[in-house]
Amino acid sequence: MDFAPSPRAADLTERTRAFIRDVVEPVEGEYLRDLAEQRRTGDPWRPLPVIEELKAEARARGLWNLWLPKEHAGEYAARFGTDGGEGLTNVDYAPIAEATGGSHLAPLVMNCNAPDTGNMEVLLRYGTDEQKAQWLEPLLAGEIRSAFTMTEPDVASSDATNMAATAVVHGDEVVVNGRKWWSTGVGHPDCRIAVFMGLRDTPENLEADPGIDRHHRHTMVLVPLDSPGVKIERLLPTMGMYDEPIGHGEVSFTDVRVPVGNILSGPGEAFAIAQGRLGPGRIHHCMRLIGLAEMALERACRRGLDRVAFGKPLANLGGNRERIADARIAIEQARLLVLHAAWKLDVGGPLNALSEVSQIKVAVPRMALEVIDFAMQIHGGGGLSDDHPLAGAWTNARALRLADGPDEVHQGVVARLELGKYGAKR
Amino acid sequence: MDFAPSPRAADLTERTRAFIRDVVEPVEGEYLRDLAEQRRTGDPWRPLPVIEELKAEARARGLWNLWLPKEHAGEYAARFGTDGGEGLTNVDYAPIAEATGGSHLAPLVMNCNAPDTGNMEVLLRYGTDEQKAQWLEPLLAGEIRSAFTMTEPDVASSDATNMAATAVVHGDEVVVNGRKWWSTGVGHPDCRIAVFMGLRDTPENLEADPGIDRHHRHTMVLVPLDSPGVKIERLLPTMGMYDEPIGHGEVSFTDVRVPVGNILSGPGEAFAIAQGRLGPGRIHHCMRLIGLAEMALERACRRGLDRVAFGKPLANLGGNRERIADARIAIEQARLLVLHAAWKLDVGGPLNALSEVSQIKVAVPRMALEVIDFAMQIHGGGGLSDDHPLAGAWTNARALRLADGPDEVHQGVVARLELGKYGAKR
Amino acid sequence: MDFAPSPRAADLTERTRAFIRDVVEPVEGEYLRDLAEQRRTGDPWRPLPVIEELKAEARARGLWNLWLPKEHAGEYAARFGTDGGEGLTNVDYAPIAEATGGSHLAPLVMNCNAPDTGNMEVLLRYGTDEQKAQWLEPLLAGEIRSAFTMTEPDVASSDATNMAATAVVHGDEVVVNGRKWWSTGVGHPDCRIAVFMGLRDTPENLEADPGIDRHHRHTMVLVPLDSPGVKIERLLPTMGMYDEPIGHGEVSFTDVRVPVGNILSGPGEAFAIAQGRLGPGRIHHCMRLIGLAEMALERACRRGLDRVAFGKPLANLGGNRERIADARIAIEQARLLVLHAAWKLDVGGPLNALSEVSQIKVAVPRMALEVIDFAMQIHGGGGLSDDHPLAGAWTNARALRLADGPDEVHQGVVARLELGKYGAKR
Amino acid sequence: MDFAPSPRAADLTERTRAFIRDVVEPVEGEYLRDLAEQRRTGDPWRPLPVIEELKAEARARGLWNLWLPKEHAGEYAARFGTDGGEGLTNVDYAPIAEATGGSHLAPLVMNCNAPDTGNMEVLLRYGTDEQKAQWLEPLLAGEIRSAFTMTEPDVASSDATNMAATAVVHGDEVVVNGRKWWSTGVGHPDCRIAVFMGLRDTPENLEADPGIDRHHRHTMVLVPLDSPGVKIERLLPTMGMYDEPIGHGEVSFTDVRVPVGNILSGPGEAFAIAQGRLGPGRIHHCMRLIGLAEMALERACRRGLDRVAFGKPLANLGGNRERIADARIAIEQARLLVLHAAWKLDVGGPLNALSEVSQIKVAVPRMALEVIDFAMQIHGGGGLSDDHPLAGAWTNARALRLADGPDEVHQGVVARLELGKYGAKR
After folding, report:
1. Which domain covers residue D393, as residue numbers?
2. Rounded to two decimals, what is the model's pTM?
């Protein structure tokens, strides 16, 4: 159980921190103000030019595509990526993800943000050479962006068997129909491709075919966003925030036709792909949340020492020190739990870390919400405004109690595996 | 300890519910969509016409200015207001406030929304005849709106003695300087007047004058918003939401001069006024939050019965029923606590209800946050969007953990009074 | 919704407080020391003589059997009981129960303790004249004590249909078999009679008889403890405490034969009786817990002001004042909730207060545990010892999360009724 | 950050588990019943013979004194102890401590129980050759036991500067006076020696001597329990439990005279010794609590699968699976946090792990209480009795929120170090 990053990863972490401290943070305040201004007066979905400048700088510093997994990166690590020519383990990447998590722009400008990393990983693992050439390479180069379309507005998507969208092979085409939402990334003008998940046939036909078990009923297919029949119906706010220029959209697919060559892995393989995709993705999300919580705690401490009320720094009033201590304890525990899950994933793959990945998915957003909420409270009214990055951080963490499966589903997984030790079938 | 409303109040409550159910709710969805559209394409601060229509209907139904307090309403109840010609007690008004709380528009269109009710109450109790004629009457008529400017961005305003703004008498004028924020209401184009609170003299002069104790150092003064030197610097988002067309602003006051006749009660009387102003205001806020929590619980139950996952209605999965039960219990306890505070206020005035008013200020937002958060969670991703009024409700409740004094200050009041029973001086 | 006690009840509450303050509390410390000594050196189940002295004094002061319910007390109120000749409503009795709850001995010496009150109420409502003469009168006189035997060790008794014990009529006898535990009261040497609940026939016969629905399968019968076949197997500790001289026992019943005249109400009527028995009993338990929590908070405050660490009274360290405030808020809310349930019971009977009684059963022990745990903590190690009545209070409150139905069952009732508002069948 | 135990430690852990599973657990139930019987009928402080048998077996299996620390064990490891001839690191010992924690007898019979381990460590590190020969060797041999006397009944001992007991050198003697309580171990008939902590001089003299800073005012001295003037006043219950045959006592010291050679390290050195003593001790306590929580969770799962109510295993009712998941998550986090603290201690000593040791002291008992309380609840009434080891486990965990410093003091340490990062002096 060794959670220490390799020397190379430790060096990359340090360099990531330096990049964020020296390059990103100094422009982040102005970026956010410009974005707010653009919201009032222009098109908030037009990425501000500073983003491309920061991307160039990240690439120049060798801090580009650091998420590339050791196991699957292959030649792409050297061509597009991580300094040193090979990918990183989950344990190695974890502190880097944490370092980026406290910054609004860092994940994006280092080409390390969701959902693109997950989509690129899918292409790395399951893509054909053609798929890789057409979509993976420009994604790795940061030239285009992608979306992941799975959740649907009309059903409880926590139960994947509720899914109603279809991706049915007709001859050499796949016909795609359905309505998806919370499709992260579709707001960005560079977003060109969606990984779409749907039933391989109509529900009636599937019911009638006992040969297809419920884990082989779904297909993943690459759908270019400019395909006829694809319509971004609207962009959705999360607690009032749109997360421009990435955004989360509601997208309809009406008789969209793409070549069968766009199918990932094969018809009915979506579950297997999703399983593999989500493990590392959840590690990344959780480590970024830990970075966010660290940012919030640092701000809470600084505010607590700077502001004075009733003759004392706020930190010395009432239970504030206890809350600071509890925040520190909660962050440490959460980080160790994520490192543990990362290590389990590294040493034994997703099936070895089923409970652990669900554990962090439950524990880390909860922890982050608690810490950030305290930081908001100690900042007074300002903590709820956009003068501080706390309200945005809270919203981010809150969304992760639902994204990639609600808490309750992950608690169910953990409980099932726990009870399984004593003979429970499920 | 009788919490039953009078028959007249029970009738008004019923009529309020009917008005909301039959008139307000049917247009609220469209209102919110139009407002969202206006945000994207126009000026979100321009009130939509339906508001005036609803105001007229509320007035026609005798559901106008129901907040008017029995004790202080005097002739104004008959002239502007509550059906029946006199004001209501806090216990009587409480269920009406609750009924309005679940609706986005009801408080506004019934002329029962903060901060106007608090400002009108101050004018009722402390206003001169001139002040009443000039400001109170158009406010009661719903022709203009008002703001309350107390909190400051540069200090911990939870400690009122930190206040730095000044309202100094020079001859027959008051010179007003300072910067305020979270000035609710300044976004509305009809907002004409601010109740401003500031030091009666420079901090240095006050320090040098031992004759003025710290509870007589502040003055409240009426400042028309079109006075030279008043500038609305910006409107502030709360968790990403601007609460149009009311809004919360940051306002600077630079050498603003108003007649001494605009002072409320007298120089140095601000604390006494604030004390009286805040008791009923907190009752109103808390009862509206209870209405909000009831709305959230109803939606959670309906969603829990309608949506199906893993073969069952969501309500029957995992701990959802326990959470529904806990929400019901929490709401009941919160309502009873507010009624108790209202009753204490009615029978003995603000000094009789110091602890009770602080108790509800701590307990009710906490409860509402818990209930609404559960409702968001059971709605899945949609719960965080603006498809449901839950994210807005959460934000509203969260802000009330800070507005009118943060939790920690109110806990301090409750603890001081508790320890005082055993001889603690403070 | 009027929670004010009648003037007579208010007077009885005052007199109860005076009795406890002037008579009971002065001897309670020595009583507990003597009991501890008797535990080490003698028979802890022998009631100490002071109990009879206090009973006599309570009776002399007219503070005897105050629990007698207005609705059912009839002639017995005048003959055995409450000063003034009639019983009290639940709202009237609530503050008296609270006053007794903070004292170890008061409920016992005022003949107001569980399970005797519940058993006496059953006899009042369902007893024949013979049953009343034989058992109710000596119980009301405080000459004998009683037990209630329902829970069984070998099944999950939270589901009453799991019950395995039987009480089968054979000719003019009832044959009683089974094993019960948590039979409160059986430790007392004066305990003479058990209210026993069992299946009216063997499970097989009941299964075979579709005419008997599951709410008419159980019978309640009076079983004298000296009947052949009744054996107190052992007395059970609760968190290490035996609660002498009352005690909670495991009792086996082997072919015990009692006359059919001992059946209460009739064969198969146990559910109906239990329903009525438990409503008021839960009010009493909960109000006593509130008294216990008030006692704990008072001790926490006094300790917080008296003890000094790091140069300050403990109350002024860290979050202690916040915890004191939260305790005050929690107690107020809990008391109001119980009064609300009592009022609902008074105005509409048990069916009118199903949710409310379950609400308090969940909320009040939780609250009490929180408050008492804080009081233990602020007392340091001593708080866990028997130098203070806190460890005993905690244990008492903890047991009430299970006694009379675990939290989870009561949450289920509240949720069922809540969801029923929206059409859920169950 | 490597938390993996050495191969030798992993082997010892396995052998410990086998010893407990095969030897200790099979006799534990009977042991507890015999102890309960002895409580009723004899002297509960007389250790039952099985303890010596188990000690012999533990020694024979090389599972004796495994706590001996690598750094300080020296020759004693080979002579008295850990299989292999040298001590273990904290990381190595952690899983062994966890394995023993779920068993009532294992720590005692493996000579690994508090307070003896802490006292032996003090002797190892600070003892003279004479002190070691006289006290350390028989302790290591398991022939005698020891106590640690620090906390005092009359002051808030959370602030060590409140201590009033004295240990003053007069010529070649130390005169010891004072009253201590929660002196763990004094109940055991083999307890021969107390490590006593007291002021090196009268408070007045110390006040008058500015040369002695507040961290050099206390002395630790070895006081044989048979010294004239030592009196065990009483044994204290914790939540009703006496923890026989170890026990926690109140002990008075009246003009007790011991040779100066009994001073540990030197006059005024007590703080330095205590600092070193408590780090590993807290690791041990916390790891044992994790073992206790694992035991409770296993029992909760088994019970949840075995018992049926409302037609389902309890585990499938309501929120029970969520609670099982949360328990698993909480245990994992707690274990990782303790391993982290152990690792920090191993790589940098106590000063390197100040915050981490305080973190676990706060987090682990909280976690254990939550898990055990759930296990009690799912066991119904039996969970509170002594039919299951849960009530004892809860009490054990509750005591550790106070023993070795209350939560609040440790939260203070964590917060001080956290705020120190941003310049706070203290």
Report:
1. 271-420
2. 0.97
